[in-house]
Automatic annotation (TrEMBL):
This is Uncharacterized protein. Pfam families: DUF7708, NPHP3_N. It comes from Gomphillus americanus. Residues 278-338 form the Nephrocystin 3-like N-terminal domain. Residues 74-208 form the DUF7708 domain. Transmembrane segments: none annotated. Keywords: Repeat. InterPro entries: DUF7708, NPHP3-like_N. The keyword Plastid does not apply. It comes from the Eukaryota.
Length: 342
């Protein structure tokens, strides 16, 4: 084929280039891991999979002597990847978009290979924490995403760069070049970070444009409705009353358990619960029961609890966890009482 003919060839779509990047990653895996990857890449992760995986990472690092919990640093980034794996019905009109699911599996494989190099875990977890701060989340654009092919393409382009970054890390983690790579860490990583940041900006810009368009459409619909129907003043006043009530209730208690858990989990790793017969019996119980740990202030109860949560996510199936501190329980109780006030 002539050079001119090659130039005239259209660029592959983002979806196809993502699939190609994933295939190249898979080709570089050892044979035993290829088999695992082929099985796991078809599985769509649920929302709890992020906590399960960060627990797995921290347990792996703990066995290598790392006392600090690094998994929570990756949570925001991993949440973005998990949400990307759930958008297949929009991108391809089916119930599952396999390349998006494969990105989740690919990220897991690469991160598990990286944590084997304990000397660099701190730098790497900090890198993914920084990336996570601007990682686009599907839940923030759920209403706008189906409306814009440009938004969908930018979203896919973002994860092409994520795949390339993870592929680079995975390959280097299996060679002696991993240490050498960190000698020129800044220049190489800066290029990937810049690409991801630029794509995240494009996504935000397109979201802003689509938000304006949607608002204009809603305004037109509202104008037509006002022509056809008269606003019920009493209903409107009742709506304002309800809004004020919910504002007061939210002021009593808006609890972000994910942030509290991440902050506590970063403080350290512990395996004390493993040798606690009371904990093992409680975990194995088939009936309702309560486990209580007591101790002086700053004895490490919160860190112990955060590690227990990891253990439950790794070893218990179909689990539902509610995480509250003592002051939050009081605030929630107050909120419940006020919610009964007409």
């Amino acid at each position: 084929m002539s050079k001119a003919a090659l130039v005239r060839q259209p660029q592959l779509s983002p979806e196809l280039r993502l699939a190609q990047a994933i295939s190249e990653f898979e080709a570089d895996l050892p044979e035993d891991e290829k088999t695992k990857f082929k099985v796991q890449r078809k599985q769509s992760p649920d929302s709890l999979e992020v906590m399960r995986f960060t627990a797995q990472l921290d347990r792996s690092m703990f066995t290598r002597g790392l006392r600090r919990g690094h998994g929570p640093r990756l949570t925001k980034f991993l949440e973005g990847v998990q949400q990307f794996a759930s958008i297949g019905d929009i991108l391809v009109g089916g119930s599952q978009y396999l390349p998006a699911c494969a990105v989740w599996t690919l990220v897991r494989f690469s991160l598990l290979s990286i944590v084997q190099h304990s000397d660099y875990v701190d730098k790497l977890s900090e890198l993914f924490m920084e990336i996570g701060r601007s990682t686009p989340r599907y839940q923030d654009m759920a209403l706008l995403f189906p409306r814009s092919k440009k938004l969908q393409d930018s979203f896919t382009e973002y994860y092409i760069v994520v795949v390339l970054l993870c592929h680079r890390f995975m390959k280097l983690s299996r060679t002696s070049g991993f240490k050498q790579f960190f000698n020129s860490y800044s220049d190489t990583i800066t290029r990937y970070e810049k690409q991801l940041s630029t794509l995240a900006d494009h996504i935000r810009d397109e979201m802003n444009i689509q938000s304006v368009v949607l608002a204009q459409e809603e305004t037109k619909k509202s104008s037509r409705f006002r022509v056809l129907a008269k606003v019920d003043r009493e209903a409107l006043e009742q709506m304002h009353k309800e809004q004020e009530k919910f504002r007061i209730l939210d002021a009593c208690s808006v609890y972000d358990n994910q942030t509290i858990w991440r902050q506590t989990r970063k403080l350290g790793n512990t395996a004390l619960y493993k040798d606690d017969l009371g904990y093992q019996n409680w975990k194995a119980a088939t009936h309702a029961s309560t486990l209580v740990y007591s101790g002086r202030l700053a004895a490490g109860k919160s860190v112990l609890l955060a590690n227990v949560i990891d253990d439950l996510f790794l070893n218990q199936k179909d689990i539902t966890l509610l995480i509250f501190s003592a002051d939050t329980i009081f605030q929630k109780a107050l909120k419940q009482v006020l919610s009964l006030v007409p």
